[in-house]
Structure formats: C-alpha cells, structure tokens
Amino acid sequence: MKTILVSRLSSIERAVTFFLGIYLIAASPHVLADTKNSTPQLEITSVEVIQSDSSSTQLMINGVGIDNGAIPWVTLGGSYLYVCGTCYSDSYILAEADNNVPAGDYRIVVKTGSAEKDYDSYDFTLGAVGPQGEPGIDGAPGLTGADGEQGLTGAHGAQGLTGADGAQGLTGADGEQGLTGADGEQGLPGEQGSPGTGQTINLTIDPVQFPGIVAQNFNALFPDVELNSVKVEIPSVCNGGQVVIINGPAIETQVVEGFDGAGNPFNDSGLSQELPLVFEVITPTPDDGSIPNCSSTLQAYFDGYVPGSEPAPIELIITRTAGDEAFRWNLFRFQPESSTPGLVGQRFTFSQLDGPDNLMRIVRIGGIESRSNISFNPVTDKRVEISGVNELYPAVIEATDRRLTLVYDYSESTGIWSWASEIATSGTTGAGKRSISVVTVIPDGPSVQEISRVNYFECFPVKFEQFAGFVQDLQIKERLIIDCSLSTPGVY
Q1: Within 13 Å of residue 184, how many CA atoms lie on the same side as its CB?
Q2: Is residue 11 in some structural domain?
Q3: 452 falls within a domain
Q4: Residue at which a domain ends, from 126, 154, 188
Q5: Is the distance from CB of 405 to CB of 462 less than 8 angstroms?
Q6: Same domain, 321 and 468
Q7: Which of 76, 93, 126 is the last residue of a domain?
Q8: Going by DSSP bridges, is the β-strand pair 92-97/73-76 parallel, antiparallel, or unpaired?
Q9: Reading across the β-sheet that carries 362-365, which strands appear in turn?
Q10: Is residue 439 assigned to a domain?
C-alpha cells in the first residue's frame, strides 16, 4: 500500500485554483516540428490532502498522462468525487468530496477513457497511521550456499624506475643599490576649478546582504522601494503589509547530463527545488495605519517558529494600474530561516522546508494576461519562437550553443511559467522537450525583417524567477534559463 503523510492546510490553500493558459502559436517553417506521441499510460504518482474538515475533503492527485480531452472520472473508496472543468491538467487533478471523509485506508480510481492505459488506481491512508504491529516470528535460516571457486591472482606490474634528482641551481648575486634620483622641480599651481554640481558616493557592496546574487551570475539589484514593493499576507502574522522583494518566487530544475547513441549531448531533467524568498519590511509606515507594519509580528513568528514544523503559507499580491489585483503568488511550506537588518528595514528570509523533489509548492493564481502591444527593443530583443509556448520578443541575455537566458516583461511572459512548472513536476520524460528558434530581426516599416536565426533542439527550462516589477503587473520582469542538446544556424 502507498502511504502518504497528510497535513492540514489553511483556508488560503482551499482557494487555490489553477488557471494555466498555454497559447499554441504555429512554429516557423525553419523550426523542426516536435513529434506528438500517442496519449501515454495514465499513472497516479502521489495524493495530497488540500482540505479536510466537516464541510468537504479536497485532494490533489498528481500523475502523468491525465489529460485525455475529457474531465477525469474519480472515485474515492467507491464514491464519486467532483472535478471541475478547469481543475485538472496532464499532471494533476483537484478533486472534491461533498462531505468530510473519515480517516482510514482508501483506494482512488481515475479513468479518462475506455482503454486500459486510461485507468489507474492508488491506495493511500487518510489521517493518522495506526500503531506499529508486533514483529512476526523469525523465519528459519536458509541453507548456506556453496563456496565459489578461488579467482586467479593477477600478475604484479613492474616497478617503475625512480628519476634522478635535478642539480641545485646556484644562487644569484645581489645587485648593487641604485643611486637615488634627484628631486624634480615644483610644478606650477593649476587653475581653480569651477564649483561642482554633483556628489560622489563611495559604497561597498557586501555580498552576504544580497543572497543569490553571486550564485545567479547577475548584476546586483538594490531593493527598489518603488519597483519591488508588494503586499504580503501570512495568516495570523501579517495581513496586507508592504514589503520590498529581494529574491522573488523562483524554481530551479536539475540537469541530468547524458548522450545519445552517436555520442551527442542529450540531457534530461532531474529533481526541482524552490529557491528562498527574501524580503524587507518597509519602515516607517504611514501614521494613518493604512499599511500595517508587520516587522514586529514577523519577528515574533521567526522567534517562536519550531524548526521542521508546518510553516504558514505566504501570499504576494501583484496589482494592476487601477489598484485591483492582477494575480498572486502562493508559496507553501516556506519556513522562517533568518532575520537580519536590511537596507530599507528588517530583512526576512524563508527557505523551502522540503528537499529537492518533483512537487510544486509555488502556485500563481490569476495568470498573465495576453497583450497585443508586444514590446520590441531592437538593441536587446530578438524574436524567440518556442514550439507550443509562444512567439515573442524577450531580451536575450545569453545565447550559447546549448544554453539560453531570456528576460520577459509582462506582455511577453504568457506561457513560460506553465512550461517551467510542467517540467518541474512531470520532467522531460512526462512533459517532453521543445524546439526553439532565436531570430535576429530589424525594423522594416510597420513590421520587422528577419536577417538570421539559430535553431535549438531538445530544450527544457532549468530555472524560472520573477526578479523585478512586483509593484505593478506592467513592470514585471521574469527570467527563464533554458538547456538544449544542440543548435544549428538556419538555412537561407
């Protein structure tokens, strides 16, 4: 029987729904099309309890091969569970029972079609696990196997000759002391300069105060109160306090290096890990109490936290220009790690309680809206065509023969978070790899003209992060690092 540890989550997590928009854009004829295999075998890999109380029980069913074009049919111990039309993808199902389900052993059955590959079941324990049973009686010892034959002793290799020591070189004689040169004549005084209008500031950056900067190989970004301030909600700790993000929501996926039959690089994804969340509480806050100062309550939370216990969920709320909510980041099982003085207030660091695995504990609710006014900066941007994801104009920060680093703004980032989270949970074996073209274009009247391109194959994201623009959706900056097996220039 498969047994999972069930933890009770807060009311915030009950409201988590997934709205992952993936926009399918026709790939350029210069890009090799990805081959679509037939629907894979349905497999349930784990089950988590999102909510379990007197009103309902909500289960998160993780797996592969779930999306077969219709709403999955789910039963728990023979009873049907409700699944809404947007509560599933190829890697998960969010199912709900109408009443509280008592603790005990259950079997979940999922069907997505009539074929044998469209069926799977999963046994798990809901609630506390029973006490350990008494040990059974020891079995009789097995018969002693016959001794194997003695292997032949290998021949000793010949002793190498010891090389002769080199002769000691002679010590050179000290050179004579050179004569002291005569003093030069006093130069004439320079003219009086005009009064300056600026001010010089000498500042030494302490890397310890900027976690992740050195490891990420990016320029140090000082906390910008205007650009990176955001509302944070932590149940019973901070309700709507304003903070400045230092390290935002980010996930990194392991690259498992490999080779194909011809000896060419052929990498796959491994385990994934959510990176630390770091923010500073802005002080002072307005006297009218319109923005709560959560510095003292956060410090009390850090001081009283028991390492290893279930931490409170964290929500970061990004707003539109009008002030209404655009979307929010939900972060689960991020435990208090350190509290130190920062640049604009007290700095708080949260790290993931669990080690590397293939379970996502960062959820974006609300998604990124598709915009028609695509940004294109001819100096830094290129047209990037990702099969099955998008065809937009991010800034290309790095482009080697097998590695791409792209920076998207708000109007361009549709689909990249969905792709990164799908690889983090299902891996390249479940989610597959994609082909990419990086196209150099120049403005040509109302449109652009292509002048060159490089095609990348067998690609998958290895890191995603929102690193700036938390104050407003239009200012969002998101970084995506992609690993590929090979690249070739386009043919013209």
Answers
A1: 3
A2: no
A3: yes
A4: 126
A5: no
A6: yes
A7: 126
A8: unpaired
A9: 334-341, 346-352, 277-281, 238-247, 229-234, 314-319, 325-331, 362-365
A10: yes
What's phi and psi for 158, nearest 5 deg? -70, 145
Query: What SS3 class is residue 417?
Result: helix
pLDDT in tens, 81-101: 888 878 889 899 988 887 677
Residues 104 and 242 grouped into a single domain: no
Amino acid making up residue 64:
V
- Do 100 and 237 share a domain, yes or no? no
d(Cα 483, Cα 316) in Å, to the nearest integer? 29
d(Cα 3, Cα 409) in Å, to the nearest integer? 43
Contact 19, 365 (CB under 8 A): yes
1-40 pLDDT per residue, tens: 443 333 333 333 343 333 333 332 333 333 333 433 467 8
- Percentage of the chain surpassing pLDDT 90? 43
CA 203 – CA 212 distance, rounded (Å): 20
Q: Do 367 and 255 share a structural domain?
A: yes
Nearest-CA neighbor of 245 among 231, 265, 261, 262?
231
Res 271 pLDDT > 80? yes
Q: How far apart are CA 484 and CA 433, in angstroms?
A: 9
Tokens of 388: 């099955």
Mean pLDDT check: name the lowest of 60-74, 124-138, 151-165, 186-200: 186-200
Domain span at 47:
41-126
- Cα gap 333→355, rounded to integer Å: 11
200 is a domain residue: no
Q: What is the DSSP string of 321-345?
A: TTSSEEEEEEE-SEEEEEEEE-SSS
Q: Which helix (H) or strand (E) holds 374?
A: none
Question: Same domain for 228 and 113?
Answer: no
Residue 279 and residue 412 share a domain = yes
pLDDT at site 215? 38
Q: What is the dihedral of CA 385, 399, 414, 322, to 10 degrees?
A: -130
What pLDDT, on a 0 to 100 scale, did the predictor assign at position 473?
87
The alpha carbon of residue 294 and the mean position of all alpha carbons in its chain are separated, in whole angstroms, by 27
Q: How many domains does the structure of the chain reveal? A: 2
CATH classification at residue 62 = 2.60.40.10
Pair 112, 254 in one domain? no
**What is the SS3 assignment for 143?**
coil
